[in-house]
Amino acid sequence: MLPSVSILQQIGLGVLLVVAVVWTVGLVRLLRRGRYEAAMRRDRREMRARYGPHGPEGLPAAPELLGSVPRQTGPAGPAAECVELTAQEQEAFEELVRQLTSRS
Questions:
Q1: Span 73-90, pLDDT tens digits
Q2: Full-prediction pTM beyond 0.70?
Q3: Which residue among 1, 10, 35, 99 is least packed, with the fewest CB closer than 10 Å?
Q4: Distance separating alpha carbons of residues 96 and 87, to the nearest angstrom
């Protein structure tokens, strides 16, 4: 503690620093959220302009957004690949799996 500063001034300084940190964190979060929402609005505007009813004739309908990545195998996707491992490779793979599962 500083001898020339009263306890009330030190408490005030601590409170002021805490408020400044909280305000800075809040401001950063607000700016990030605003930037994300602005990007989403811009993307929606571009999608409407590209695929909306006001665009030129002959454009396809607006694509539906996917909730997850579709499967890549099947009649429309590439064929599944299968590789036979040697005994040494199989053993090395099993050891790797054991190491990875023991860490979690």
A1: 666 666 777 788 899 999
A2: no
A3: 1
A4: 14
